[in-house]
Design a protein that fits this description.
Chain lengths: ~180, ~180
DNA sequence: CGTGCTATTTATAATCG
DNA sequence: TCGATTATAAATAGCAC
């Protein structure tokens, strides 16, 4: 933004790129802090330098880093969903298990609702751009519970598989069951 | 940065603050993406809006959030019917089923506790401001830990499967792809 | 409340020492 | 390579609808 308009693409020239990086990162951090001050909102910026071992973080590291780290891992979970998804492994016996689990899940859900931590999020159906502090807090617990359920199911599956392996034609672990796309 | 120089302090005027927030957050996100593009560095920005139910996250904030939402939405688990089961695979699973049910029931109890804790945090008549980055971070960390547990569980299953192979047409067990360590 | 539209303030790309 | 300088590109505060 100065003597010349810059194209939005990778700056090949090494020196220029590094200079630009330093300047812009500095400006960015300033901007974030300003926004936070002016509007009193929580915000976090993390910038990993190519050669720098420790990323630049605002505000003071630890906390922000963890939050961001977690956030960045979420997409991986999405991948995990696809991974385990394949074609039938064990299909019919679990019906009853499902029933009971579902029942318990329903109870869980009712509690969740009672916590009123989500109609907004779930309501959008997909227009989720961000999570508020309240939502994150609520979600943390919710996720914990859900993850716990999944873990237990997996445990059961593991034991079952060891006890009586079965030949399958496809990929057995249909994770969509755990992480439905919709 | 315009008609008048702005003081670096909380903007008391509600309307002005909101307007400024929207404008600056937008600009900030643009800046982050530009830096990332120009210098090819990893960066992440998270902005929690006060009134905004949804915080803005860059990059792929939407995706991350969507995943969480999906977890939360995990209601019916209809597809889970396909999940396990193949040909009479788990038969005496009832026992384990019951065991799982017990565990889920325990979870319900735990959740009730969580619920009360959560209410306390969220309570106070909209005193959401009371929730600091600390709390959110802690919860986020908890979730991360839980997710890690599941991942390890799945890895263990993967090894077990290799030890006692099951005929498959694909290559279902590349868990590292699903749960990259990094 | 959101949408534009300037007038100015900032952020910076290029340059210089 | 690193600041300091400067000419421009961007961002945006205050207004008008």
């Amino acid at each position: 933004m100065a003597r010349k308009k810059v194209k939005l693409e990778y700056i090949a020239n090494d020196a220029s790129r590094r200079a630009t990086f330093k300047k812009r990162r500095k400006g960015l951090i300033k901007k974030v802090s300003e926004l936070s001050t002016l509007c009193d909102v929580k915000a976090c910026l993390v910038v990993y330098g190519h050669d720098e071992p420790v990323p630049e973080v605002w505000p003071s590291g630890a906390d922000a880093v963890r939050v961001v780290a977690r956030l960045k891992r979420m997409p991986e979970m999405e991948q995990s969903k696809k991974m385990m998804d394949q074609e039938g492994f064990m299909r019919q016996r679990i019906a009853k298990l499902q029933e009971q689990v579902r029942k318990l899940e329903r109870e869980n859900r009712e509690m969740e609702i009672s916590l009123s931590m989500n109609e907004r999020m779930l309501g959008g159906g997909g227009g989720l751009e961000a999570i508020g502090v309240e939502e994150v807090t609520g979600l943390a617990w919710l996720v914990e519970v859900k993850v716990g359920e999944v873990r237990r199911r997996i445990e059961a599956m593991s034991k079952a598989a060891k006890a009586a392996p079965v030949a399958t034609s496809g990929n057995p672990w249909i994770m969509d069951s755990f992480f439905p796309l919709n």
